[in-house]
Amino acid sequence: MNAAGSWDTPGHTERYRARVFQERDRLTASLADMRQEQQRVLADLLDFNADTEFGKHHGFAGIRTIDEFRRAVPLQDYSAHAPYIDRMAAGEANVLSADPAVVYFTSSGSTGAHKKIPVTRRFMRTTFFPFYYAAWAPLLEHFPEVLSRPDAVLNLKHDPLSAPPTTADGRPHVGASQVDFGEMFGEPLSAEPGTGAPWATLPVDVAPDDHLQKTYLRLRLAVQSDLRCLIGINPAMIAAVPYQLNLWWPRIVREVRDGTLGGVPHRAPDPERARELERLADYFGVVRPAQVWPRLRALFCWTTGVASLYMPALREEFGAGVTALPAPVAASEGPSGVALDRHGSAGSLVVSASVYEFVPADDDLLPGTETLLPHELEAGRDYHVVFSHVGGLYRYAGGDVVRVVDRVGGVPRLEYAGRNTRSDAAGERLRDAQVVRALHRALRATGLRLRNVACRVEPSAGAAVRYTFALAATTPWSAAEDGRFAALLDQGLTAESADYGRARADGRLDAPVLRHLDRDAFHRDWHTAVAGGIRPTQVKDRMFRQDDALWQRLTHTTTDGENRHE
After folding, report:
1. Environment class of 478 (CB within 10 Å of its CB; exposed 0-12, middle 13-18, buried 19+)
2. In Å, how far from its chain's centre is CA 26?
3. What are phi and psi of 75, to 5 degrees?
4. Percentages (nearest 5) of helix, strand, coil residues in the chain
5. How many C-beta neighbours within 10 Å does residue 170 have?
6. What backbone torsions phi and psi does residue 310 show, to the nearest 5 degrees?
7. Rounded to whole angstroms, how far apart are CA atoms 246 and 227?
8. Cβ neighbours of residue 83 under 8 Å, at least 6 residues apart?
9. Strand residues in 285-439 grouped as ranges (E)
10. Dihedral sign of CA atoms 173, 177, 182, 185 in order
11. DSSP bridge partners of 184
12. Of 398, 432, 401, 397, nearest in space to 414 by CA
């Protein structure tokens, strides 16, 4: 992301390190009095946006406390904000924020429909940049070699565009990973690690939406570098790398030998590296990232949700002792948590970024739903996140669910627990976080491991329905293991959800069944989605897959239910 060339400027790395640790220190200091800091953020957004249309309509000028703010503004999702945002994108000023939008982040959300998230200078300065810099502190502190060379990091999400799409008022409408923050917001230090690598801006022509070709070209170049870190944010992108190496291996080795890139002459042929790569394939049979990059130390991505089921096995693909550091708990709309140390999944609430409210995850989000404040949260429980910030989102329920892991200095540490979508075919009201925890329980009890998993509701005997779990295992399971796992999964779902337990007891739900896919099924499905033009950052793990066409694509089933894997 952003201003890749700045990494070549003398002293840039040292200045970047200093800024990262400075922002972490500031965030840490803000945690000392969480309630006072939250009041300060509230006062700032009310004062700054009091004269906007939204601010006038909701009486911002007369609000002083969070309780007054909650009474004045209902809980809202994107659809409630969308009419205001559309007017901003058409060029109208002073609608949600006194500061005009410089760019609009695109976000796919849980349905795949693209959102337009207005991004203002004030938002970037007060909400975004502090957490954005601080997020890299654990990586740079404990793995300083990642900045030893521009090509020490493969940043999979970096995807600059020379001609981005725009809104009606001419503002770019792109993913956050496609924005040059240095150029747009005057932040010369904002370029992420890995954005100065030779593959950051591809030296050959490739169509903007040919994301698989971009991925191939970057891997082709990266096999000739001594990588120390992979950055993906979306863990599905990192999980795809071992599959991609083997999928494209003969082509990669040939191009290294010939000195070509995408069939075009690029640099001097490297027959010695090509022979080394060939020996890896001959000796090991299956090429692993750990063999290609033996000194790789860290992965940076979300480590929770569905990814938590496959992360242990994935880390092994990249080498013994490789650390997976959690990316921030954040969405295009704003941050919730950022890891300030090496905790494997959770980050402290970013109390200086937004005004935060929370709703128990099993409750419905309605305009008048009562909320909890950060000091009222309980460890070990899941919550909807609601936030308000100076950029123009107010009491905004973005759809993320977080789990409170613990507290540090009275401030909750959060991990991403999934989206707030529910599967509710028979009154079971299952959230994906509940399913993930039930799967963990069954895996621990059986010693089995997964490469990925998804589920859907299908007809069963009589009037009942049942959950079918499509899973790719790391090694084959016996029939006895299948039966034991399915029974434990059923027990785990009952323990997680009283509604699921009642639906099972009443006969509305039958016991879940397992459907084994081959080990690469989920990777092929990911590649198919990306080949269809979806940016890799947006092709994420999804637990519930009720769409018939997408389920058939994943499982390679025909309309009559035949499984082509079997």
Report:
1. exposed
2. 25
3. -60, 140
4. 40, 20, 35
5. 8
6. -110, -5
7. 18
8. none
9. 298-301, 323-326, 329-331, 334-338, 347-349, 355-360, 382-389, 393-408, 411-419, 422-423, 430-431
10. positive
11. none
12. 401
* pLDDT tens, position by position, 512-564: 999 999 999 999 999 999 999 899 999 999 999 999 999 999 998 543 333 43
Rounded-to-integer distance, Cα 154 and Cα 544, Å: 30
Q: Report d(CA 536, CA 549) in Å as an integer.
A: 20
Enter the DSSP assignment of 509.
B
> In which residue are the tokens 């940016």 written?
535
Alpha carbon distance 487, 321 (integer Å): 34
Determine how many CB atoms are found less than 10 A away from the CB of residue 294: 10
Among 494, 489, 382, 512, which Cα is nearest to 428's? 494
CB 77 within 8 A of CB 65: no
Task: Say how many residues make up the chain.
Answer: 566
pLDDT of residue 3: 46
Q: Which residues pair with 115 in a beta bridge?
A: 107
Token pair recorded at residue 14: 């040292």
pLDDT tens over the chain, length 566 residues: 444 447 888 899 999 999 999 999 999 999 999 999 999 999 999 999 999 999 999 999 999 999 999 999 999 999 999 999 999 999 999 999 999 999 999 876 444 457 899 999 999 999 999 999 999 999 999 999 999 999 999 999 988 776 788 888 889 888 887 888 888 898 989 999 999 999 999 999 999 889 999 999 999 999 999 999 999 999 999 999 999 999 999 999 999 999 999 999 999 999 999 999 999 988 988 899 999 999 999 999 999 999 999 999 999 999 999 999 999 999 999 999 999 999 999 999 999 999 999 999 999 999 999 999 999 999 999 999 999 999 999 999 999 999 999 999 999 999 999 999 999 999 999 999 999 999 999 999 999 999 999 999 999 988 899 999 999 999 999 999 999 999 999 999 999 999 999 999 999 999 999 999 999 999 999 999 999 989 999 999 999 999 999 999 999 854 333 343 33
DSSP letter at 478 equals P
H or E segment and range at residue 102: strand 101-107
Count Cα atoms within 13 angstroms, Cβ side, for 355.
26
Distance CA 526, CA 532 (A): 10
Among 299, 141, 296, CA closest to 228: 296
Helix (H) and strand (E) counts for the chain? 20, 21
Residue 211's CB: how many other CB atoms inside 10 A? 23
Token pair recorded at residue 561: 């239910």
300 phi/psi in degrees, rounded to 5: -125, 110
